[in-house]
Amino acid sequence: MAKLLLLLALAGCQSAPLQAQKDPLPSWNDGPTKQTILGFVRRVTTEGSADFVPIADRIATFDNDGTLWAEKPLPNEVYFVFARVHEMAARDPSLREKQPFKAVLENDVAYFQQHGAKAIVELLVATHGNLTQEQFAAEVRRFLDTQHHPKLNRPFTATAYAPMLELLAYLRANGFQTWLCSGGTIDFMRVFSYQTYGIRPDQVIGTELKRESKVIDGRRVIWRLPAVESINDKETKPVGIDLHIGKRPVIAGGNVLSEGDIAMMEYSKGRQGPSLQLLIDHDDAEREFAYQEKDNVSLNAARQQGFTVVSVKRDWRNVFGAQPGAKQTSSVEPAPMDRRSMAVPQFLQVAR
Amino acid sequence: MAKLLLLLALAGCQSAPLQAQKDPLPSWNDGPTKQTILGFVRRVTTEGSADFVPIADRIATFDNDGTLWAEKPLPNEVYFVFARVHEMAARDPSLREKQPFKAVLENDVAYFQQHGAKAIVELLVATHGNLTQEQFAAEVRRFLDTQHHPKLNRPFTATAYAPMLELLAYLRANGFQTWLCSGGTIDFMRVFSYQTYGIRPDQVIGTELKRESKVIDGRRVIWRLPAVESINDKETKPVGIDLHIGKRPVIAGGNVLSEGDIAMMEYSKGRQGPSLQLLIDHDDAEREFAYQEKDNVSLNAARQQGFTVVSVKRDWRNVFGAQPGAKQTSSVEPAPMDRRSMAVPQFLQVAR
Question: What's A223's domain CATH number?
Answer without folding.
Answer: 3.40.50.1000
